[in-house]
Design goal:
Layout: E1 8-14, H1 21-29, E2 34-40, H2 44-56, E3 60-65, H3 71-84, E4 89-94, E5 98-99, H4 103-113, E6 120-129, E7 145-147, E8 156-159, H5 160-166, H6 178-188, E9 192-203, E10 209-212, E11 218-221, H7 226-243, H8 248-270, H9 274-290, H10 298-303
Parallel strand pairs: 1-2, 1-4, 2-3, 6-9
Antiparallel strand pairs: 4-8, 5-9, 7-9, 10-11
Helix pairs in contact: 7-8, 7-9, 8-9
């Protein structure tokens, strides 16, 4: 069945949500049957604000984790609740993402236009980065969708049948590469990954800035902290261990960015915590080799 407002449940993961959060939730909840907010250890004031949102919007509910359990665990909590609510499609969002007001209609059009809709495992959004003004991928006018190897979780819609067959997100990844690993797993189970051609979401990928690169090239600096660098390096290698030979070009491009371009160019240009970020990449690499997952232990945190 094609996605629509009556068969879709939205899951929003929060962690210290910022201003205008109620407006973003209202835009999402107006397009779906029900909205589930999973909070990952925000402050008491922020929790009260989320509660006010739920009281103001009758189709919105929330659940609160006492500490940050990671994006994967929070998404899985939301998915379980969406299944209890009878959702046939689940659309997921980060707290700062702003979808277009016709997002579900756009998903339905993509679904109807795809020659094998029963093979759709996820439809993701092309998105505009609100800090850089750049689209995730170039918009191709006249096309509705493109086949992708991986899409981000925010603004992505999944049919329940795909989740039941391929499983949920990997809790032990905690944060980075959670979405990529899931997309590769969907394809291993025979599903297709689609991405809208038009940008349907405004989304922020960290505290991004742009610097001039070689020639006319522009280099985007994400300013990810040491802990995020650890997760990116570790989870990228763990994912590559499982899916490299099915997606060789994708991994060569991304791994070269993570382990060559970032340490040699991006991290030094960011000029903050350079040594700690480089150490975090090394530590993440070593933990990937050892097959270590989950959240790093306390001694590691002291170093990061």
């Amino acid at each position: 069945m094609r996605p629509n407002a009556d068969n879709t449940v939205a899951v929003i993961v929060t962690y210290h949500p910022e201003g205008n959060f109620e407006e973003r939730v209202a835009r999402i909840s107006s397009q779906v049957r029900h909205t589930v907010i999973i909070d990952n250890g925000s402050s008491p004031t922020e929790i009260e604000s989320i509660g006010n949102v739920c009281r103001a919007l009758s189709t919105v509910e929330s659940a609160f984790n006492v500490r940050n359990l990671g994006i994967a665990t929070a998404l899985n909590q939301g998915i379980r609740r969406a299944l209890e609510l009878g959702g046939q499609w689940i659309v997921t969002f980060d707290q700062d993402s702003v979808p277009v007001p016709y997002l579900l209609d756009a998903f339905a059009v993509i679904y109807d236009s795809y020659p094998e809709p029963e093979k759709i495992g996820v439809i993701g959004c092309n998105f505009r980065d609100s800090r850089t003004g750049m689209n995730a991928v170039a918009h191709s006018p006249g096309t509705l969708w493109r086949k992708a190897e991986a899409v981000i979780t925010s603004g992505s819609i999944f049919p329940v049948r795909a989740i039941k067959k391929a499983g949920v997100f990997r809790d032990d990844f905690f944060i980075d590469f959670v979405d990529h690993e899931f997309c590769f797993r969907l394809q291993r189970y025979g599903f297709d990954v689609l991405q809208s051609s038009a940008p349907l979401l405004e989304h922020t990928l960290g505290a991004a800035t742009i610097v001039n690169g070689l020639g006319s090239q522009r280099l985007v600096l994400r300013h990810a902290g040491p802990l995020r660098r650890y997760f990116v390096a570790r989870n990228a290698l763990l994912t590559a261990r499982c899916y490299f030979f099915q997606h060789v070009r994708w991994f060569v491009r991304h791994l070269s960015g993570i382990f060559l371009v970032d340490p040699l160019i991006r991290i030094p240009l960011e000029k903050q915590n350079t040594a700690r970020k480089l150490f975090a990449v090394l530590l993440g690499t070593l933990d990937a080799i050892r097959g270590k997952t989950g959240f790093p232990d306390y001694r590691v945190l002291l170093k990061l």
